[in-house]
Amino acid sequence: MSVSLTEHNTLRLRSEARAFSTFRCLADVQALHQRAMAENLPLKVLGGGSNVLMPAHVEALVIQANSQQVTFVRSDEQHCWVDVDAGMSWHDWVLRSLEYGHGLENLALIPGSVGASPIQNIGAYGVEVGEYLESVTGYQLSTQQYRTLSAYECRFGYRDSIFKRELRDDFVILRVRFKLAKTFSPCLNYAPLNQLDAATVTPQSLIQAVIDTRQSKLPDPAETPNAGSFFKNPVVSEALADALSAAHPEVPRYAQPEGVKLAAGWLIDQAGFRGKRLGPVAMYEKQALVLTAPEPASLDDVIALQRAVQEEVYARFGVMLEPEPQVFL
Fold first, then answer.
1. Which entry of 105, 128, 312, 324 is annotated as an active-site residue?
2. From the candidates 12, 14, 159, 177, which is the catalytic residue?
3. Which CATH architecture has domain 3-65?
4. Any idea which architecture 70-181 has in CATH?
């Protein structure tokens, strides 16, 4: 009997899996892996469901972490190391992280689980999780080995990691070790956080500012199904960025070590897609970067709108947008 995954993805796309189970520890994962192999099924891991696009049917044993333990490891004068289980809510961990140290404040209210955070190398307002991550521990399916990968071995990039490339569908994350700073040093480089006073802002007030900002622009998945920011902010050559700035002086741009990062939301808005609906899906009226599903939708519906946005943005600006959510195949 198939199991519905519709309530396990924040876009609530109509989907079902051949089988579904939760896990808490390595022994659970090993037993589920043996079951999947006995039934000749792939084993696929689902996080919080906030960054995936579900097809109508997933011919796999889908597993999801439900362990939420936080364990102090050690500390010195400058840092504190903490292990967090994969099943913990990311936002809950950000709030609790203040008990141990700092660095994650800008990442408040990002939906999803701790175990999923390294896969995407989640980021917001100038901060990426990879900057505060010491290691990732889990189980590699192909070798049936328990492994710990250092932050270096995770090969973090912009919304990228080894878990999206060489270890895609081959690594079940069990816990993440964070290295938090003892001293609070807020990152206020990006609007609107750059309006805060660095001399008076506190960790709590910074988190609240991030929450307020996100709630003012992003829909609550519980009320309006969505997958958060749908497209990556593109990094383009300086020459292309200069050409766009000459034609559109107001285009938001951020210098990078290589190239220039543009604001995908601005490009989509200028292309006329903010609030635009295509069938049961639409780009959010308050933030053009967010794809929503006001009515029950399928993967095909999402892909149709994704392609329409990509084609129009490319036609107008010569920039090809890349979606953040991955198809769960």
1. 324
2. 159
3. 2-Layer Sandwich (3.30)
4. 2-Layer Sandwich (3.30)
Query: Domain residues of the chain, as ranges?
Result: 3-65, 70-181, 226-327
Task: Please name every residue paired with 20 in a beta bridge, in sequence order, or none if there are none.
Answer: 62
> What is 110-173 written as a DSSP string?
--SBTTTHHHHT-EETTEEGGGGEEEEEEEETTTTEEEEEEHHHHT-BTTB-GGGTTTTTTEEE
Q: Give the pLDDT of the chain (329 residues) as one tens digit per residue.
A: 799 999 999 999 999 999 999 999 999 999 999 999 999 999 999 999 988 999 999 999 999 999 999 999 999 999 999 999 999 999 999 999 999 999 999 999 999 999 999 999 999 999 999 999 999 999 999 999 999 999 999 999 989 999 999 999 999 999 999 999 999 999 999 989 999 999 999 999 999 999 999 999 889 998 999 988 899 999 999 999 999 999 999 999 999 989 999 999 999 999 999 999 999 999 999 999 999 999 999 999 999 999 999 999 999 999 999 999 989 98
User: What's the pTM value of the predicted model, to 2 decimals?
Assistant: 0.90
CATH architecture of 226-327: Alpha-Beta Complex (3.90)
Residue 229: active-site member? yes
Q: Which residue, among 54, 52, 31, 32, has the nearest Cα to 42 in the 3D structure?
A: 32
Of the candidates 229, 274, 298, 312, the residue annotated as catalytic is: 229
